[in-house]
Structure formats: C-alpha cells, structure tokens
Design goal:
236 residues, alpha/beta, Rossmann fold, 2 domains, four-stranded parallel beta sheet, binds nicotinamide-adenine-dinucleotide, NAD(P)-bd_dom_sf, oxidoreductase, Oxidoreductase, oxidoreductase activity
C-alpha cells in the first residue's frame, strides 16, 4: 500500500509500505506519485481519494481571499489530479476508484450534498462536485472494468470532524463513527462493488429527501437558528 499526504510524516506514520509527501492540488506531483507506485509494486489496483480540507465555519463573505478557492482546489481538483494519472494503470488492473463526498458538515445543516452548507459553502460545493466526478468516471470507465465507489461520510471522529463540529453545542455527541469503523465500511463497500456508501448507514434516509432540492433550501431559509448561524459565521 502507498500513502500520499501533504504531510509526509503523516504518510510515514500510516504504516503504508510506501509513503510519499505530495500536494494533491499539484498534478505533476500526483503523476510522479503514480509512477513511484508502479515502480515499486508493478500495478495499481485501488485509488482512494481521501485528502480533503475545510475551514472553520465561516461565510464566503467573511473568508480571506483564496480560502474558499483552496478548499475547492484540494477537494475537487485534488481528487481529479489523484485519479487522472492513474487511469491507464487502473484499466490494466481492472481496478477501483474511491472518491469521498460528504453527508455531514457543518453543524447547522449537516448535509454536505443535501443542502448548501451555510458556513461551509465551498466545502459542500466541492463534495457535491466530487460526487458528480465519481458518477461521471464510473460511466466512462465501467466498460473497461474499473469500478467507482462514492462514499458519503457523516461526522467521523478525525481531526477534521473535531475541528468543524466544535462550535455546535451537542456536536461532539454527533461524532458517532470512529475512523477505523469508517475505513472498514469503505473496504466492505469496495469489496461488494457498491457505487454508493453512506457512512453511517443510518443516514441513508437523507437520499430520499434529496430530490426536493431548492424546496429544502426554502424550508431552511425560514429557520431562525439558521439566520443566527449566518450572523455568527459572518463575523469570521
Ligand atoms: N471527518 C468528517 O467528519 C468527514 C465528514 C465528511 C467527509 N469527510 C471527508 O473525509 C476525507 C478525510 O477527512 P478526515 O476527516 O480524515 O480529515 P483529516 O483532516 O483528519 O485528514 C485529512 C488528511 O488529508 C491530508 N491533506 C490535506 N490537504 C492535502 C493536500 N493538499 N494534499 C495531500 N494531502 C492533504 C492531511 O494532511 C490529512 O492527513 C476528506 O475528504 C473529508 O472531506 C470527513
């Protein structure tokens, strides 16, 4: 296994056989990482695009220039940069791609691809786009034997989960899934060739209301709590 992380020490401490320090937003660096994997292992079976960032809850209005762009660059362009140089080796191995979308951020709306996440608009935009990237790649690559799984994480107990959920009063209680459990659920989804994996599974019901689209937004616009969140997030 190879771990690629902008934080090379984090990649090394993961226990992977090969650790590479690279920024997923850097296309050349990701192509070089694929080359190193092929040199070392001779093949590439599964690409798991998990690198992702966000900022503390804040409106687009209140963010510093470039902050929202960097979230989209890492989460969306980074996912594309991770997959694109790996396509030919994945076809050769009849391999699998895992992209990471979201069902849970920030604390007020909680639904990354369900509602426009106030305080995390760039994040929910990137994660909705990642979902479409996964769906599109599946359409293009399935006839060559390459599968795609789109994972939608709810709140997971990681550095990101703790950082982004901390402002909500009962937020910590909502972090019910540990990273190991989430990783096992992803592996199971890949083994079963599942296209969509919502983790935890009890959040599956959210998909039923997704087609409501802007009607859901309209309901949320009437919420006093939502308006209070916006005022808090506007202050940065
Ligand atoms: N934790 C949650 O509650 C939650 C919920 C929904 C979705 N997700 C998604 O799950 C994925 C994993 O998140 P996590 O909770 O483990 O976050 P994390 O912050 O704990 O870990 C993210 C890892 O990505 C690395 N990284 C950041 N920017 C990078 C870059 N430009 N290039 C290479 N590596 C980079 C970091 O160094 C870190 O090791 C992310 O895509 C995130 O959006 C997480």
């Amino acid at each position: 296994m190879c771990a690629v992380d902008i934080d090379e020490e984090a990649a090394q401490s993961s226990g992977a056989d090969l650790a590479i320090g690279a920024d997923v937003a850097d296309r050349e660096a990701m192509a070089a990482a694929v080359d190193r994997v092929l040199e070392r292992f001779g093949r590439l079976d599964v690409v798991f695009c998990t690198a992702g960032i966000t900022h503390l809850p804040a409106t687009v209005r209140s963010l510093k220039p470039g902050e929202a762009q960097r979230v989209i660059e890492v989460n969306l362009i980074g996912t594309l940069n991770t997959i694109e140089p790996a396509i030919e080796p994945l076809i050769a191995a009849r391999g699998h791609i895992v992209v990471v979308s979201s069902m849970g951020w920030p604390p007020n709306t909680e639904y990354g691809t369900l509602l426009p996440a106030v305080g995390g608009v760039a994040y929910s935009t990137s994660k909705t786009a990642v979902e479409m990237l996964g769906r599109g790649l599946r359409m293009e690559l399935s006839q060559y034997g390459v599968g795609v799984t789109i994972t939608y994480f709810g709140p997971i107990d990681t550095a990101m989960g703790r950082l982004t959920l901390s402002p909500a009063p009962k937020a910590k209680e909502r972090i019910t899934v540990g990273p190991e459990k989430a990783a096992v659920a992803v592996l199971r989804a890949v083994e079963r060739g599942k296209v969509r994996a919502i983790i935890p599974a009890r959040w599956n019901f959210l998909n039923i209301v997704r087609p409501l689209g802007v009607h859901l937004d309209n309901l949320l616009l009437r919420s006093k709590t939502q308006r209070e969140f916006i005022r808090t997030y506007d202050s940065g």
